[in-house]
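Hey, quick one: can you model this chain's 3D structure?
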Amino acid sequence: MDASPEPEPKSVLRTTTRAGGKAARWRLPRWPVLVGMVGVGAAVTTGTLVKRRVDARQHAEIQAIRMEVNASRSELAVYWARVVSLRAEAERMRAAAESSRVEPAKSWTRARARCFDGFVERVHRRADEVAFDEQSKAIEAACARGDVAAARAGLLQLTSVSFPSTAKLAALKAEAYLQPLAEFSRQTPDYYRAFQQHEPEAAREDFAALRKELAGAEIEATTPQLMLKMELFSTVAPKDDPLLEDIAALASAADFFENPDPATLAAWRRAQRAIRIAEWPTAAAEMQSILRTTVRTRQPFRAAYGRAILQNKPDDPGAAYPYLEEAAAAGDAAARAWVVQQDLAQGRTAQALRWLEVGAMAGDKENAAKLLELYALPRTAVPRDPKRETGVLLRLAAGPDAPPLVAMLLARHYEEGGGLPTSPAKAFACYREAAEKKHVPAFAEVARRYLQGDGIAADPDQARDWACRAFAAGEQEAALPLLIELMNTAPERTAPAVQQMFEQEQVAGAAGFDDTRIGGPSMAQLQMQLARFFDQAGDYAQAAKFYEKSGSRDPAVIKRRGELTTVRPCETCGGVGKVRQSPPCPTCEGKGTVLCPLCDGRGYNFAPGSPPCSTCGGSGQVRQDGHVFACSTCGGTGKAKSSVIKQPCPNCAQGRAACRECGGTGRRTVLKECPDCHGTGARALADQ
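Sure thing. Here's the predicted structure for all 688 residues.
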């Protein structure tokens, strides 16, 4: 039985057998299946393409997000590099502050470092750095897992960390560093000078602001803060700044007025400006207007007003005298000097002396010389209080550079007891102090006390030396009696010094010390004493000279001077004027002999001939071992080979011959000018 055919599967292509018995190709499936298969393939392909497009877009967005994050990281790196630079500068400032050891630089450098640290902290935003780091890590994690939405949201919230712009950094530096530093520097001028040195640009801006503030402020109504600013400005501003003048006038107002009102201060400022440009009528008028108000003025203002009057009307010192007298009483040294000058010019010597004493007790050294001049005058010429005078002199003597006249006047007080107990020793010490300071009148006083033993042990040598110094310095009237007395008591020790004193005599001017106790003996008396001393000593020349200088008309003196100066024949040369002398012969220099000219000092000459043989002695034979042989040196001739014979010189003895100029005596007799009469043939005793 034929088996029934099985149905073919739907998914298998069937084949057909064509004619000829060949198998046909597979047949296509049915149309619904084909369409389904094509649709499925298209859907798969479309989905794959869409997915690829989505993935590419997501990847591109993630890359863009990462690029933005990296750009922010680059800004952070630049920011951090500049922060590091600022921190290095802050470190240098701190090191400079630590190395500074001297105030005020030490405090200022520390304040500067502290202010700069505050500025760096404002620039360095640590919290933003931490937030950026955390946020950038979260964005990277979102990008890694492909969460674009989360990454985009994180990017929108990413903290920006970038370095401030130039303008913003300058504003931040001014706010956090320069302004606090300027405020600190304004505390003292030294701080401000350091601020000007290290931050010159900021200091210029701050100084300009300070000047503008002071120029526009109502400085008539000052506050303590404004006064501090004015004091700082006055110290650090250039000396030619015109604002300084107004500030100086205002600053001095407290010394010139009590509670001045604005009108008074304005008038005072106008007066100060007029004084600075020497407009004295304006200055005097403004100051007079102040005096007419109810504002109480202080003494310095009245003194300034008196000086303005003097400048405005120099021919009317009487108008200014009351004001300057008040200033002098208040201790104004310049006003006191002017008042003294006016008192002396008007003959008010006692009043001038009183002002000078007040100044001396206050330490005024400029007018001390004028005071001492008045003290040196007799008390009858200038009445004064001895006790007050003594006190003033002791005050002046206490100074390291006290004038020598002070010691001189104190010595007089110790002698006379004018306000001090008498003490010869203290008087001598004062005189000696004045003399050692080269006060000429003290020389004679020291000499007198050494001579008399007054306050010191007697010492004629010291008395002589000091008296000669006084005479040579011009104090002849005081020195003469001392020297005369010394010539009487110790002529041998005094005469040489007095002679030298006269030879070096110099006339000096007045010493400025009026001493009425000294008389005036004649200088001729001292010269006569000196002449007699030299006459007795046999020094007739000096005796004749001082006899002549004395100018005495005493017949005995005239006769003696004639005896000393009368010319007589010279005893030395017998009136010829020449004397025979025997000086050493110049040819032989006094030796009497000279080198022999024949032998040139050898003592021998050479003559032609043969000298005997030195070996055989001229015999021609020599003996050896008892036998006689011919001399081998001379060949038995007995003569030497030389053709010259050495013979003694017949003209000399040992090379020296007698000098023909002096005949061997060594001296020559010549006529020379007489040393006593100098060739005149006559002389006097004074010439001896």
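One thing worth noting: The two ends are 211 Å apart (CA to CA).
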